[in-house]
Amino acid sequence: MAGAAKNAPKRQIFGWAMYDIANQAYTTIIISFVYSAFFVAYIVPVDSVWRDTYWSIAIIGSTLIAMVLSPIVGHYIDQGVSKKRLLLWSTLVCAIFTCFLYFVGPGDIWWGIAIILITNTAWMLGEAIISAFLPDISTRKNMGLISGLGWGLGYLGGFVSMVMVSVMIIRADPVTDTEAYISQHQWSMIAISIYFLLVAIPTFVLLKEKPRPVRKLAPSNWRQSLNLLNQQRLQPVLFRFFWAFLFYMAGVQTVIKFIGIYSTGELGLSQTDLVAVFLATQFSALFGAIGFGVVERFIGARKVLFIVIGLWIIAISGMYGIYDIAAWLDMSVRNVFLVIALLAGTGIGSIQASSRSLVGLLATPERDGSAFGLWGVFNRLAMLLAATFGIAADLLTRQSALLLVIAFFVIGAILLTRVNQLSALSRGE
Fold it and tell me: Does any domain span residue 25?
């Protein structure tokens, strides 16, 4: 099974964790909090009937592309292609094309969607590639802790990038100085690209790659990586976990992809309120990922996942009844939402970190690249399910669509009960 005999040097673990700090800026600013809300409010024309749906198109499109490319990239890693080289390409593509969002102005819907297709695809591939290093730098016993450490520290990157964009760059009033407000959003895209490249440098300098035997690639071999039925036959325990992961991660991805749109469009929160929500989730996610990483060493990843899924169900249920809760507690909707954000944030990093460590534990050394490539596929499938929230919100209401999110977590928990071997595996038994 995966897991090195002893830990890699601390400088390599540091270099590996730095990539989480670097790439978190893209998903925080572009996908979750800032650009998604800006795109729907200012790039999409005011008189457009479809608003959230346009953003869903960008997310769905990039997700489909990444679903195809992730297992292929994993296959080539198993065949001996350098993980660092693949990671460098994905990083450069994501950062460089993010700069092009500077040229996207009001009405340039499809130009913006095209850029998101490229950048989000590259980002998702990079996420799977950097995760494939996890078995090389950890042991079975502390894989969950190291995964949680990387994911937790990544939220520091989200915090720094949010401060840089929302406090230092985007300062104009959207009502009285709309033109400057739009321009500042455009300049922030260049700032995020530079941040991503600079902070990722320690990863490429410090992280070492274990040599793999280079094999001659048969032209048809990579196609086998796309046959999920065959892959499931080869790795049945891993896939049993993947099917549970698909649903509960769809709930998480819905929050990640639509939190900015929901906060501003449904609850009417201001940019300042959005920053407060962001800070609440970032710091609770940081401590949640690291804290549950420690807990995982004692009770196993499966039990940690059940606990965190329970926290998510409580949090989303609170969002669904937020107006009634606010009235009952005599609190503002904003303050109730901040409390809910703290609860959700505690689980947002830990659920992803524990899932990533389980993949590393279940992967055999010769197939760890494919395992994380497949993890990327199911992560992308979860994003597709999450993107249906935008369509459901347009057809019904955003508030009613939250019931869909609760259903994702419930189904995921039920499927996870069928994965009886994970508890022992995560403790290295």
Answer: yes
Below-50 pLDDT ranges, the chain: 1-5, 216-220, 421-429
Q: According to the model, what pLDDT value does residue 122 have?
A: 97
Determine phi and psi for 46, rounding to 5 degrees: -60, -35
Rounded Cα gap, residues 90 and 85, in angstroms: 9
Helices (H), 79-108: 83-99
Q: Domain holding 389: CATH number?
A: 1.20.1250.20
What whole-number distance in Å separates Cα of residue 28 and Cα of residue 35?
9
The structural domain count of the chain equals 1
Candidates 415, 127, 150, 167; CA nearest to 278 is 167
- Rounded to the nearest 5°, which phi and psi values hold at 214? -85, 120
Tokens of 418: 């069928």
Residue-number span of the structural domain to which 411 is assigned? 10-208+234-426
Backbone phi, then psi, for 129, in 5-degree steps?
A: -65, -45
Query: DSSP characters for 158-183?
Result: HHHHHIIIIIII--S-TTT-HHHHHH
The per-residue b/e assignment along 338-349, b for 16 or more CB within 10 angstroms, e otherwise, is: bbbbbbbbbbbb
**Among residues 76, 75, 92, 74, which one has the least CA distance to residue 130?**
74
Do the beta carbons of residue 139 and residue 9 sit within 8 Å? no
Query: What was the pLDDT predicted at 4?
Result: 42
> Which DSSP letter does residue 14 get?
H
Specify if 129 maps to a domain. Answer: yes
> Of 345, 354, 415, which Cα lies nearest the Cα of 148?
354
In this structure, which amino acid lies at residue 147?
Answer: S
Q: Does residue 406 belong to any structural domain of this protein?
A: yes
